[in-house]
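Continuing the series of single-chain predictions for the mutant panel. This is the parent chain; the variants come on the following pages.
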Amino acid sequence: MSLETITAQIKAQSKKVLPVDEWDPDYCGEMDLQIKANGDWYYAGSIFKRVSLVKLLSSVLKKEHDQYFLVTPVEKIKITVDDAPFVLTQWRWQDEKASTMLVTNNVGDEFVLDNSHPIIVNEKDELYVTVRRNLLAKVHRNVYYQWIGLAKEIETPNGVELILQSAGNQFCLGVIN
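Parent structure:
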């Protein structure tokens, strides 16, 4: 399966948000496509230079168990993801008075940080945000440090938690023991 065939199939879909979760095509093998931990996409060892192609392919990315696939209505191809497929690179207040934060990832997906797009802290205390379905974006270090500056310190039985608020939700960024 070639990259050109996959992109043609994706472009044939006219909807903005593709129903990737509803597609269950036959497995077609693996492709030498890798998403590095910093969010860069590589095909056959060469970095993607066209951002539009990365955006297009990311729209059909699907995670099943611990494996990632590019999925079209008729094909399912396994790819390699080093960490998370996206990196959360920016944030801004949509409504500062209501503490509603908009976040943006490296492919331009923008969404509200809320209970549908929560912050997740892994066992290494690294932060991730759910982008869509079960796909995560790792929070870039610059964003993390900006959020630490905004966080409120709240005393809990576990220690002092650093809490970030957005859209009526409280997210723990870490615990100071």
